[in-house]
Write a structure and sequence with these properties.
Layout (H helix, E strand, L loop, with lengths): L2 H12 L3 H20 L4 E3 L3 E8 L2 E4 L6 E4 L2 E8 L1 H7 L1
Antiparallel strand pairs: 1-2, 2-5, 3-4
Helix pairs in contact: 1-2
């Protein structure tokens, strides 16, 4: 499902306009970016937890050229599904 389909589906379920839902999803993504950038978890009850994880810098070997490259440290976001959602999906 792409972003357009997601916005249309949520808008239809909530009875809202697609512009409102699009702004809501953008605001949620902004909160995720801000909080995870500060290394805070974001918990959505009944859905799951977004957890930031810090990856250290490492040396990587390019598979086709064999050159060694230094990959800088970065923050990645992991997602854990809540038990409520997990049981509903089973």
């Amino acid at each position: 499902m792409d972003n357009k389909k997601l916005v249309e589906t949520v808008a239809a379920n909530l009875g809202r306009s697609t512009d409102d839902v699009s702004k809501l999803l953008e605001a949620f993504a902004g909160v995720l970016r801000t909080r995870c950038g500060e290394m805070d978890s974001v918990i959505v009850p009944g859905f799951g937890t977004f957890e930031p994880k810090k990856r250290n810098e490492r040396v990587m070997v390019h598979p086709s050229t064999g050159r060694r490259m230094l990959v800088p440290p970065k923050i990645v976001v992991g997602f854990k599904v809540s038990n409520v959602l997990k049981t509903k999906l089973k």
